[in-house]
C-alpha cells in the first residue's frame, strides 16, 4: 500500500464524510435546541442514503461523462458547505438543507472513491479499502468525545463540530489539490442489470445492505439509546458511544492480518454471529455498563462487513464504475432505511421496541451468507 498524497487525501475525505454526517452524536443536543420528532431527526441521516439511491440508479451517464477529479471535487463542494450550514442551523429547514447538501456530496464521494482506489492501487485494493475505512471510524470516535466535552464544559456543540470540520477541509485541499486522479474508462457504462446478472452478485449485495443498515442505524441512534433507554445524562450520552467507533477502527485495522489466516466468507460469518450476540447486552443491559460493553463489541464485530462485502462484489466483475454504483445502491438502501426505520418505529412503539430491527437484519445477513455458495 502506497501512502501518497491522493491516498492520504481520500483518507481525510472519509474522515470528512464521517464528521460532517455525525448526526448520531449531535441529534440529542440539536433536538434540545430545535424541536423535531424522531422521524424528522432520522431524515437528516437518511438524506445521504436517498442521494446514494438516486445517483446509483439514475446517475450512470453523469458519472461516466465526468472525470473522477471533477466528481471528487463536487463531493467536497457538497460536504463542506452543507456541514457548515447544518452546524449553524437554528431551524429544521436549515439543518435539513445542510444535511441534504452534505448527503449529496457524501454520496458522490462514496460512488467515485472505489473506482479511484481500484485504479490507483489495484495490487492491494482490499487492504487499501479496509485501512481507508478506519479514517471515518477515528473521526466518528473523536466527534462524540468533542460533543461530550462541549456539554461538560458548558459551551456550544457547534464550535466542537465546525472547527475540526474546517481543519479537515484544509487538509483535503492540500493533499488532493495537485494529486493525479485516475481517469474514467472510455467504454460505454454498464447497466445495473448487467452487474446483478453476475453469479452470486445479488447475495453479496444483500449482505452489504444488511451490514450497512445495522452499522448506520446503530451509529445514528446509539447516543439516543444511551440517553433514553440507559438513562445516561445529556452530557455523557454521546461520549458513551465512543467504544462503538473504536471497535470498528480496531476491526478494520486488523482485517488485513485476518485475511492472511481465514477466508473472507468465514470472517463475515463470524462477524455477523458475533454482532448478533453483542446486540443482547447493548439493547438489554444489564445496566449502563453492560450496554456500553455490548455497543463496543458490536462495533468490533460489524467493522469488517462493509469493506469485505465491497471487495467481494468487486471480485465478480471488472467494470469498477458500474460496481461502484451497485455498491452505492446497497449503501443507499441501508443508510436510508436504517435510521428511518428506527426513527419511525420509535415514534410508533418507542425506541426500545424499534431497536429490535438491528438483530433482525444481522440474522438476515447471517442466513444469506450461510446459504451462499462461493463462486
Features:
single chain; mainly alpha; 375 residues
Number of helices: 19
What is the arithmetic mean of pLDDT? 84
**Rounded Rg:** 19 Å
Percentage of β-strand residues: under 5%
Helix content: over 70%
Distance linking N and C termini: 27 Å
Shape: globular
By secondary-structure content and strand pairing, the structural class works out as: mainly alpha
Helix and strand run: HHHHHHHHHHHHHHHHHHH
Task: Give the low-confidence spans.
Answer: none
**Tally of extended strands?**
0
Please summarize the sheet with the most strands: none
Note down, in words, how this protein is organized.
By secondary structure, this protein is mainly alpha-helical. It is built from 19 helices and no strands. The mean pLDDT is 84.
Topology (elements, then pairings):
Elements: H1 5-20, H2 23-33, H3 38-58, H4 60-65, H5 68-88, H6 92-120, H7 125-132, H8 134-153, H9 157-176, H10 192-196, H11 201-228, H12 234-237, H13 242-259, H14 264-284, H15 287-302, H16 305-314, H17 320-349, H18 351-354, H19 357-370
Helix pairs in contact: 1-5, 1-6, 1-8, 1-9, 2-11, 3-6, 3-17, 5-6, 5-9, 6-17, 7-13, 8-9, 8-13, 11-15, 11-16, 11-17, 11-19, 13-15, 14-15, 14-16, 14-19
Short précis:
With 375 residues, this protein is mainly α. The protein has helices at 5-20, 23-33, 38-58, 60-65, 68-88, 92-120, 125-132, 134-153, 157-176, 192-196, 201-228, 234-237, 242-259, 264-284, 287-302, 305-314, 320-349, 351-354, 357-370. The protein has 19 helices and no strands.
Amino acid at each position: 500500500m502506497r501512502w501518497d498524497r491522493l491516498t492520504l487525501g481520500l483518507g481525510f475525505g472519509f474522515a470528512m464524510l464521517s464528521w460532517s454526517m455525525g448526526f448520531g452524536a449531535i441529534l440529542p443536543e440539536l433536538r434540545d435546541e430545535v424541536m423535531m420528532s424522531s422521524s424528522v431527526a432520522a431524515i437528516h441521516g437518511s438524506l445521504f442514503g436517498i442521494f446514494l439511491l438516486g445517483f446509483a440508479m439514475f446517475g450512470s451517464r453523469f458519472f461516466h461523462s465526468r472525470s473522477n477529479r471533477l466528481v471528487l471535487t463536487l463531493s467536497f463542494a457538497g460536504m463542506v458547505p452543507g456541514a457548515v450550514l447544518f452546524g449553524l442551523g437554528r431551524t429544521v429547514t436549515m439543518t435539513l438543507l445542510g444535511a441534504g447538501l452534505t448527503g449529496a456530496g457524501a454520496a458522490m464521494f462514496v460512488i467515485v472513491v472505489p473506482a479511484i482506489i481500484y485504479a490507483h492501487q489495484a495490487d492491494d485494493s482490499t487492504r487499501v479499502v479496509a485501512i481507508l475505512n478506519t479514517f471515518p471510524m477515528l473521526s466518528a470516535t473523536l466527534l462524540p468525545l468533542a460533543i461530550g466535552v462541549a456539554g461538560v464544559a458548558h459551551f456550544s456543540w457547534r464550535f466542537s463540530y465546525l472547527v475540526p470540520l474546517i481543519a479537515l477541509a484544509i487538509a483535503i485541499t492540500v493533499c488532493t489539490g495537485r494529486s493525479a486522479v485516475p481517469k474514467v474508462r472510455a467504454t460505454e457504462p454498464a447497466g445495473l442489470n448487467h452487474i446483478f446478472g453476475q453469479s452470486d452478485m445479488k447475495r453479496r449485495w444483500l449482505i452489504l445492505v444488511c451490514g450497512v443498515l445495522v452499522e448506520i442505524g446503530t451509529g445514528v441512534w446509539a447516543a439516543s439509546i444511551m440517553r433514553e433507554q440507559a438513562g445516561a445524562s445529556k452530557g455523557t450520552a454521546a461520549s458513551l458511544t465512543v467504544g462503538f467507533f473504536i471497535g470498528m477502527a480496531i476491526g478494520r485495522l486488523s482485517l488485513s492480518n485476518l485475511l492472511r489466516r481465514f477466508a473472507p466468507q468465514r470472517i463475515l460469518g463470524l462477524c455477523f454471529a458475533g454482532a448478533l450476540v453483542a446486540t443482547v447486552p447493548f439493547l438489554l443491559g444489564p445496566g449502563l455498563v453492560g450496554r456500553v460493553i455490548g455497543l463496543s463489541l458490536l462495533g468490533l464485530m460489524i467493522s469488517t462487513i462493509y469493506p469485505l462485502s465491497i471487495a467481494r462484489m468487486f471480485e465478480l466483475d471488472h467494470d469498477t464504475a458500474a460496481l461502484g454504483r451497485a455498491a452505492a445502491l446497497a449503501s443507499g438502501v441501508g443508510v436510508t432505511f436504517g435510521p428511518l426505520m428506527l426513527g419511525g418505529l420509535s415514534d410508533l412503539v418507542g425506541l426500545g421496541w424499534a431497536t429490535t430491527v438491528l438483530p433482525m437484519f444481522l440474522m438476515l445477513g447471517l442466513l444469506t451468507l450461510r446459504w451462499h455458495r462461493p463462486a
